[in-house]
């Protein structure tokens, strides 16, 4: 084999490798944009449903696509295409309205046109109290972030979606609000950790969330690790991995 043949073979091998990598990156981008996107939970606002250190997949097609479905949110079009409205009770990722570079995750409580209010810790939708039953207490710092026992309630929305909420502090600031009317094309979002969640109850912070800001519906927890450990710290898995949370569907 001549030197030229060897050079051509080496060049072809390198070019093929670059081509394979480029195709893999494009495929990953398509999957991330249109189908699934991984997210990690950075705060305790959705406890006990989601914990810091949970890693989950969000289905991007669930609500259709907006500019925020694309990386960096380029202003290519307005509204949503192939859109589908969220259902009450969905756990959804959305872009924080005052700063769309930030991702938030909360539960969809109010739909367009709904009247939403909190009175003494009880959620009211369109003038009707949402059933709220105390089911006990949790004394597990990994779940509540508290050293003391914390009251746990089960709420059941009008469409039958049921989930647990924490009550860290009775009569906290967010337990009593004015009545909000959700505008057309917007949603009212709340965290399950009611006394430790910046959400739509606070109009000077999150407020109503435009449908354009929805990124997708939280679907399944594929990994979970406690105590602020990194998933790459494999040596901490034996003590910090939350095995019971793996592959759990988000409800």
What report would you give on this structure?
With 251 residues, this protein is of the alpha+beta class. The protein has a single domain (35-249), classed as Umud Fragment, subunit A. It is 16% helix and 31% strand. The chain has helices at residues 3-34, 141-144, 237-240; strands spanning 36-40, 54-59, 91-95, 103-110, 115-119, 122-125, 128-129, 132-138, 150-156, 162-167, 180-181, 186-190, 209-210, 214-224, 248-249. The strands form three sheets. Strands 1, 2, 3, 4, 12, 13, 14 and 15 form an eight-stranded antiparallel β-sheet that branches. Strands 7-6-5-11 form a four-stranded antiparallel β-sheet, with no helix packed on it. Strands 8-9-10 form a three-stranded antiparallel β-sheet, with no helix packed on it. The longest helix has 32 residues, at 3-34. It is globular, with a radius of gyration of 22 Å.
SSE layout and pairing:
Layout: H1 3-34, E1 36-40, E2 54-59, E3 91-95, E4 103-110, E5 115-119, E6 122-125, E7 128-129, E8 132-138, H2 141-144, E9 150-156, E10 162-167, E11 180-181, E12 186-190, E13 209-210, E14 214-224, H3 237-240, E15 248-249
Antiparallel strand pairs: 1-2, 2-14, 3-4, 3-14, 4-12, 5-6, 5-11, 6-7, 8-9, 9-10, 12-13, 14-15
């Amino acid at each position: 084999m001549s030197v030229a043949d060897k050079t051509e073979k080496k060049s072809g091998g390198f070019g093929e490798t670059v081509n394979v990598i480029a195709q893999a990156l494009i495929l990953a981008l398509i999957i991330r944009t249109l189908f699934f996107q991984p997210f990690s939970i950075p705060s305790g606002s959705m406890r006990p449903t989601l914990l810091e250190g949970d890693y989950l997949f969000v289905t991007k097609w669930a609500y259709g696509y907006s500019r925020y479905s694309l990386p960096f949110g380029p202003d290519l079009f307005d509204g949503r295409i192939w859109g589908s409205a969220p259902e009450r009770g969905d756990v959804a990722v959305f872009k924080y309205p005052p700063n769309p570079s930030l991702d938030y995750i909360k539960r969809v409580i109010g739909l367009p046109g709904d009247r939403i209010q909190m009175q003494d810790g009880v959620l009211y939708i369109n003038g009707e109290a949402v059933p709220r039953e105390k089911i006990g207490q949790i004394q597990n710092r990994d779940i509540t972030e508290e050293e003391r026992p914390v009251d746990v309630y089960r709420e059941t929305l009008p469409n039958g979606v049921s989930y647990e909420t924490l009550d860290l502090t009775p009569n906290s600031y967010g337990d009593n609000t004015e009545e909000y009317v959700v505008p057309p094309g917007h949603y009212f979002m709340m965290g399950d950790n009611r006394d430790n969640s910046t959400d739509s109850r606070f109009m000077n912070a999150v407020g109503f969330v435009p449908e354009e800001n929805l990124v997708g519906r939280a679907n399944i927890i594929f990994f979970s690790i406690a105590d602020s450990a990194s998933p790459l710290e494999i040596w901490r898995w034996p003590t910090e991995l939350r095995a019971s949370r793996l592959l759990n569907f988000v409800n």
